[in-house]
């Protein structure tokens, strides 16, 4: 896991599995070379924590979830 201090220009995208009632959803910020910031969509106003993963590790995790391995 890595840390990143300035995500003010990041474009956040909510999970396609999110519904409109503000349930348990995550957002990711794309466009940061080699990094994948992830946050809780309910705390997106800047007061919530962001976890920054190496992009390759994030994509491997998502792929494993899709294949039912996690």
Automatic annotation (TrEMBL):
One Pfam family of this chain: DUF397
Ranges where the DUF397 domain occurs: 10-66
Organism superkingdom: Bacteria
InterPro entries referenced in this protein's UniProt entry, alphabetically: DUF397 (IPR007278)
UniProt-recorded name of the protein: DUF397 domain-containing protein
Record organism: Streptomyces abyssalis
Organism ancestry: Bacteria, Bacillati, Actinomycetota, Actinomycetes, Kitasatosporales
